[in-house]
Specification:
Blueprint lengths: L1 E2 L8 E4 L2 E11 L7 E8 L5 E7 L3 E4 L2 E11 L4 E6 L5 E5 L14 E7 L4 E6 L3 E9 L12 E6 L4 E5 L7 E5 L4 E5 L2
Antiparallel strand pairs: 1-6, 2-3, 2-6, 3-4, 4-5, 7-8, 7-10, 8-9, 10-11, 12-13, 12-15, 13-14, 15-16
């Protein structure tokens, strides 16, 4: 058991029989009345977000979760992905709905799979914050059009579409932020 004083971003709690992860929280002490904690929660099974207010000092049930390193092997069909544990070489399959930004996932990519330790079920599969990808197709940039921060479409080696600056050309390696699906920088 824990209380609202133990809240931190990423903490997993069991509320109403569902597993939730704390995305944001704010302790509020109004001038009149009791203190409370305003939170934004994300359901680990459905991905749905919810805003919830807890009275200060409320006891909450913590969910036991564990992050395990896996390597992406291959995509079996339209929505099933196969992974291998880095230390035990155990192979698992995960549905596409559990993977954050599956379009940027390439073979051999290292990921972290969050497991609910009581039931041994995978909850989420998270890519690293940044991945290096090669541009396979993009339109050529227009010379002299550098006064604005204009972007153009580019297709990367995984088949995902990323908006990149006009100076990026086909065959270049770029770094993409997996949380926002945006171009970050060129990789030398």
């Amino acid at each position: 058991m824990a209380t609202t004083a133990d809240f931190r971003n990423g903490l997993c709690i069991d509320m109403n029989g569902e597993l939730w992860s704390i995305v944001e929280f704010l302790h509020v002490k109004p001038g009149k009345g009791a203190a409370f904690v305003r939170t934004k929660l994300r359901n680990l099974r459905t991905g749905r977000q919810l805003e919830h207010t807890f009275p200060s000092g409320t006891k909450i049930e913590l969910a036991r979760v564990e992050r395990r390193p896996y390597q992406f092997l291959y995509k079996e069909n339209d929505s099933t992905y196969n992974f291998m544990h880095n230390e035990t070489f155990e192979q698992i399959t995960i549905e596409e709905s559990l993977i954050t930004n599956p379009g940027l996932l390439k073979e051999g990519q290292e990921v972290e799979v969050m497991y609910h330790t009581d039931t041994e079920t995978p909850l989420t599969c998270e890519l690293p914050a940044f991945v290096d990808l090669v541009i396979t197709y993009t339109e050529p940039g227009v010379k002299g059009d550098t006064a604005t921060n204009a972007l153009k479409r580019a297709i990367v080696e995984t088949g995902a579409e990323v908006m990149v600056p006009l100076f990026i050309e086909e065959g270049e390696r770029i770094k993409v932020d997996t949380r926002t699906n945006r171009y970050s920088e060129r990789v030398k």
